[in-house]
Design goal:
This protein is mainly alpha-helical. Helices cover 64% and strands 4% of the residues. It is built from nine helices and two strands. It has a two-stranded antiparallel sheet. Strand 1 and strand 2 form a beta hairpin. The longest helix is centred in the middle third of the chain and has 37 residues, at 104-140. The two termini are 44 Å apart.
Length: 216
């Protein structure tokens, strides 16, 4: 993961990152405004505690790659174990305290990891929506098969047609029974088929949806 150079300056041989508590304190001292310093420090402290809270949502692989201190990782793990509201609040205050002790470069890396995860989640959501739209098109109109095959020529056309036929059949209960349309196994497998090709992974493992086949 590429990291942008940390902006800052050195004071008596110590690196001070821009926007850090130390930077805010130095700037406030130069201005002679201790009240503003306290306000800015509180804002920076709250931001770091929020960042610590957001780390609870970070994927395990991205969290491990950060190389955070064990004491912080243990504190975050403890937050996950605590169900009591007040207990979690106090533990998060402790996490915030530990976050304020982090090297500025680690703080920046944590922010970048969260941004990377967010970008990945948004991209995954777009792929899921695209797969859903393609499934709807293929089920609604036979003419949608041609543009699909044009875009994904490695698709097994015979298998795709079979999935479409079966999904349509499953979704059409006998009219006399007055039943609502159901989605069977083929409906889910069609989604996995489409998604697999959109992801560039073909149909490997696509039939294993991880869902119980209650309706098909």
């Amino acid at each position: 993961m590429s990291r942008k150079p940390q902006k800052g300056y050195f004071v008596q041989g110590r690196f001070v990152a821009q926007g850090s508590e130390l930077d805010i304190q130095f700037r406030a001292e130069r201005k002679g405004t201790p009240d503003a310093s306290r306000t800015d420090l509180k804002r920076a402290s709250d931001a770091l505690q929020t960042l610590g809270k957001n780390l609870l949502t970070l994927r395990a692989d991205l969290l491990a790659a950060l190389g955070l201190p064990d004491v912080l990782l243990n504190a975050l793990a403890e937050v996950r174990r605590i169900s009591d509201f007040e207990g979690r609040r106090r533990q998060m205050q402790y996490v915030g305290k530990l976050m304020r002790k982090l090297d500025p470069a680690l703080v920046q890396a944590a922010r970048q990891s969260l941004e990377e995860q967010h970008r990945g989640s948004a991209s995954e959501k777009q792929r899921l929506h695209l797969a859903e739209r393609w499934r709807e098109r293929l089920l609604a109109d036979d003419s949608a098969l041609a543009p699909w095959m044009a875009e994904h020529p490695t698709s097994d056309a015979q298998q795709l047609r079979a999935l479409i036929r079966q999904a349509r059949k499953d979704a059409t209960p006998p009219a006399a029974q007055g039943l609502a349309p159901r989605q069977g196994r083929a409906w889910r497998e069609l989604f996995q088929f489409v998604r697999g090709h959109l992801d560039g992974a073909g149909l490997a493992g696509a039939s294993d949806t991880g869902e119980d086949d209650d309706n098909g």
